[in-house]
Design goal:
The chain has six helices and seven strands; from the N terminus they run βαααββαβαβαββ. The protein has a single domain, classed as Aminopeptidase, CATH 3.40.630. With about 180 residues, it is of the alpha+beta class. Strands 1-2-3-4-5-7-6 form a seven-stranded mixed sheet, sandwiched between helices. The model has no long low-confidence stretch (mean pLDDT about 95). Bound molecules: coenzyme A.
Length: about 180
Amino acid sequence: MTVRRAITTDATGLAELAKVTFPLACPPGSAPEAIAEFVAGALSEKRFVEYLADAGRTILVAEDAGGLCGYTMLVAGDPTDPNVAAAITIRPTIELSKVYVLAGSHGRGVSAPLMAATLDAAREQGAVGIWLGVNQLNTRALRFYEKSGFRLVGEKTFSLGPELHSDFVMERALENTSQSGRQVS
Ligand SMILES: CC(C)(COP(=O)(O)OP(=O)(O)OC[C@H]1O[C@@H](n2cnc3c(N)ncnc32)[C@H](O)[C@@H]1OP(=O)(O)O)[C@@H](O)C(=O)NCCC(=O)NCCS
């Protein structure tokens, strides 16, 4: 398994990966139509082409013999959500906007190196803090983020089509040392 920066030609694979992994993060009872609407609007191949061309976004992919098995996306800049802006305390910050690994690769040593390389990429951009939003019922992700050094600092909402979901906001400091030892750029 390797972790690397995504490139333009990864847009198709990223959209395929996002389509199957986004539903894993949605709480039980989420309407399939709302999930499909979100995937079509925010996680299409066209959107990934745009994300990959956006200097404010950094996408890392985990890849094994079967192809892409995980990805993360960083979004530079201070948060625009007032609840998040009030909750976080470490600036300059960066958002860990997406962390998704194929279900078959959960608990199999993909997510930790992907996270370590992503934290390194965040450091490379000059951030000293990093924050994320995670659904309050996503206990597996909450545990993973806790293991990865994030702590709960607040709450926010997330719109999934017509549904309003409750997220926790988590934050961690970025120490000035690489944790992965990997080349990420
Ligand atoms: C979040 C994600 C990247 C974490 O990767 P992972 O490989 O599953 O992470 P790990 O297995 O290292 O850690 C998960 C931890 O949660 C624990 N866990 C598993 N199921 C759990 C549950 N239902 N409730 C609480 N903890 C749970 C595991 O035991 C493990 O903790 P441990 O190492 O102390 O035993 C991955 O699960 C994922 O892609 N999930 C689907 C998409 C998603 O939810 N992304 C986050 C969006 S904010």
